[in-house]
Amino acid sequence: MNVIDADGGSARRGFAALVIAEAVALAIAAAAMIWLDLGWAGPVIMLLLVAAFTFTLVRATEARAKAAGNFSSAMARYNKRMLVAGGIYVVGLFGAVWAHDELGASGVTAFLFAFAPSIGVLMMVWAMARLIADETDEYLRYRYVRASLFGLGGLLTLATVWGFFEQFDLVPHAPTWLAVPIFAIGLGFGNCLPRGGRE
Amino acid sequence: MNNRLKVLRAERNWSQSDLAERLGVSRQSVNAIETGKYDPSLPLAFRIAELFGLAIEEVFTSPSRHQSKAF
Question: What is the ipTM of this complex?
């Protein structure tokens, strides 16, 4: 039992160190790109770095889940879907920005360009839904649902409070595409909820 | 809901991973059930009981029954 605890603690520490190292590396890379002023190459290099770091992070997350004994084939499929969706999101976002700036658009074409970044995000939402549907382990499914409810509750709370603050001109306007990232942050916090007491 | 999972597992010299594999669930599920943090569904509770060759009430006991016995 102590061996399992030691392994779990080591995996957690390793994972936290990786997250911190990647965040620091990205911040340094971003500062270097701004300082070097590489033009269009800068964002492309940053994108490649983010993609590589995201892939590493996903693999580390899987290793951590395996060490904790809560990894499942549904989670493996979810990770793959999220990586693909993330790639499509980045291509859609940068493609839409480029097309909007370089080609210009109006009418239906403008709507299509504006919709392009949403495709990847909608795929992420679909992947989250599939995870809950695909998971055969009832305890893990319960945890996903609990984390989702936590994320949803956080999003609804923040959106309501921010909305009224905005209505009274107390805070700046917040773009609604922030909904999914905020939900995802809540989901992350929901996964870290203490598991003490009766569930 | 109280259970005798840990004792039954120890009697067979099974680790949590062994039991999880036999049940087709994650090790964390076994841990959560064993420590009383999660109550399994009825189908999973039956599967656990059948795996140990016991009746379900020989593995799981109602906390209210446990309390009433104490009085």
Answer: 0.86
